[in-house]
Write a structure and sequence with these properties.
The chain is mainly alpha-helical. It is 88% helix and 0% strand. It starts with a helix and ends with a helix.
């Protein structure tokens, strides 16, 4: 029973991602960046991208898009953390050291 419910939810999510098209990898990348900045796990999104984008864009292109969107999100999150550390948290870090 649970398997069929999860299958239906996954298919609805894939359909939703398919409707927004190229916006889905962009949203995923932004979400990964925010989660990384907040120190929350991003692994479920990595696995999800590998499962969802090949269904939308085809096997090879979908895997490529998944890797690029996750990598871009990780880069974005690290750049946001670096920028916050250099601007807003610089004085705090200097006092703590």
């Amino acid at each position: 029973y649970l398997h069929s419910d999860l299958s239906v939810l996954l298919q609805r999510f894939v359909d939703w991602c398919g409707r927004i098209g190229w916006g889905a990898p962009i949203l995923l990348g932004l979400l990964v960046g925010v989660l990384q900045l907040l120190m929350l796990p991003t692994f479920p999104l990595m696995v999800g991208a590998g499962a969802i984008f090949p269904r939308i864009f085809g096997a090879a292109l979908g895997q490529f898009i998944a890797v690029v969107s996750i990598t871009a999100g990780m880069w974005l999150g690290s750049m946001m953390a670096f920028w916050l550390g250099r601007t807003f948290f610089k004085e705090w870090a200097e006092e703590e050291l």
